[in-house]
């Protein structure tokens, strides 16, 4: 399709340069709208969506600061005053000013609509992303349940081999339950109260993370560590710790994560260890994410209990 030429009003005598420029703008806008209306439905939708995304952020800012409302109100008030003066005194209010203010109202109204549309787009995207994240979490948990259930049926594994495979399944599923730079570690508990140890963790990482924690937890060396208290408490009690919270003495400048969640892996009074999960973004370990990780920890404990019970028969 050949490129149409926008009408040029520069040579006409409409009264003033401001009026000519305003009319020229209106013709340009009409021309653009005509081009868009000539597109098919899908092209029009994409064109408007592109326009909304370009103007959206600034429009939302203007709307939030009441600038659009002020522009509409002031422009309407000025036009009303000028029209009243023209009617009462016969003095022309200035056609250019009236047209300019009318255009200002139209633009402010349009930007207000753009802001509403942009916020609707963002809301739709947030819902879509939330649904996608929920599917990822559910898929990771279901995969771990299926693997753990299958593993408990195997008769060719001793307790140590079973624990090693199940631990790898656990940290892999935990990492896959959340996108981004995550690390999951499982520490197996050994020893009796007063001499307990959490050593040699099994790790998995994703999102570019390569760090691995080798921090040992030895009760005789640090009996005041809150981790020993946590092992004896309900597994639903632990909370997410985020930077800059200095709980547990974490030096945030020296670690590769910004938030972590540690939950005991237990079934009743039988404690098997801890699952520690961290991420490089604050705010990403949501309540639903905590429930998924807690569910995985419980599946691990139940699987171990079932395997041990079967081995005793």
Task: Please characterize this protein's 3D structure.
With 313 residues, the protein is α+β, with helices and mostly antiparallel strands. The protein folds into two domains: 17-128, no CATH class; 154-312, Beta-Lactamase. It has seven helices and six strands. Mean pLDDT is 74; it is low at 1-16.
The Rg value, from CA coordinates, equals: 33 Å
Reported by name, the CATH topology of the largest domain is Beta-Lactamase
- The CA-CA distance between the termini, in Å, is 83 Å
The biggest sheet, with number of strands, parallel, antiparallel or mixed sense and barrel status, is: 6 strands, antiparallel
| Average pLDDT score | 74
Task: Count all strands and give the number.
Answer: 6
Low-confidence stretches: 1-16
For the record, the CATH architecture of the largest domain stands as 2-Layer Sandwich
Query: Numbering strands along the chain, what is their spatial order in the largest sheet?
Result: 3-2-1-6-5-4
Give the overall silhouette.
globular
Percent helix: 55-70%
SSE series:
HHHHHEEEHEEEH
CATH top-level class of the largest domain:
Alpha Beta
CATH superfamily of the largest domain: GAF domain
> Based on the structure, what is the oligomeric state of the protein chains?
single chain
Structural class: alpha+beta
> If helices are DSSP runs of H or I spanning 4 or more residues, what is the number of helices?
7
Number of domains: 2
Amount of beta strand: 5-15%
What's the arrangement of secondary structure elements?
Elements (H helix, E strand, L loop, with lengths): L16 H22 L2 H24 L2 H23 L5 H58 L6 H18 L5 E9 L6 E10 L10 E2 L7 H6 L9 E2 L16 E9 L2 E10 L7 H26 L1
Antiparallel strand pairs: 1-2, 1-6, 2-3, 4-5, 5-6
């Amino acid at each position: 399709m050949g490129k149409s030429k926008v009408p040029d009003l520069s040579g006409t005598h409409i009264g003033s340069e401001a009026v000519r420029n305003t009319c020229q703008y209106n013709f340009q806008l009409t021309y653009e709208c005509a081009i868009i209306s000539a597109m098919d439905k899908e092209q029009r939708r994409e064109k408007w969506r592109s326009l909304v995304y370009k103007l959206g952020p600034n429009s939302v800012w203007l709307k939030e600061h009441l600038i659009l409302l002020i522009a509409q109100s002031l422009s309407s008030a000025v036009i009303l005053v000028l029209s009243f003066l023209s009617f009462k005194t016969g003095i022309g209010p200035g056609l250019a000013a009236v047209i300019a203010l009318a255009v200002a109202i139209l633009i402010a109204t349009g930007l207000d609509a753009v802001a509403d549309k942009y916020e609707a787009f963002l809301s739709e995207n947030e819902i879509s992303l939330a649904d996608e994240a929920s599917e990822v979490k559910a898929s990771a948990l279901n995969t771990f349940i299926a693997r753990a259930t299958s593993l408990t049926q195997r008769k060719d594994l001793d307790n140590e081999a079973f624990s090693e495979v199940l631990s790898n399944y656990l940290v892999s599923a935990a990492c896959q339950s959340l996108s981004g730079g995550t690390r999951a570690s499982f520490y197996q508990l050994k020893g009796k109260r007063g001499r307990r140890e959490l050593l040699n963790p099994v790790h998995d990482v994703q999102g570019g993370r390569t760090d691995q924690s080798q921090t040992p937890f030895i009760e005789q060396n640090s009996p005041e560590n809150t981790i020993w208290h946590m092992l004896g408490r309900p597994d639903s009690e632990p909370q997410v710790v985020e930077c800059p919270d200095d709980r547990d003495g974490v030096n945030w400048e020296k670690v590769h994560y910004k938030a972590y969640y540690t939950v005991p892996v237990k079934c009743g009074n039988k404690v098997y260890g801890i699952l520690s999960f961290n991420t490089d973004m604050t705010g990403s370990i949501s309540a639903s994410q905590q429930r998924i990780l807690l569910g995985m920890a419980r599946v691990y404990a139940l699987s171990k209990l079932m395997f041990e019970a079967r081995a005793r028969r």
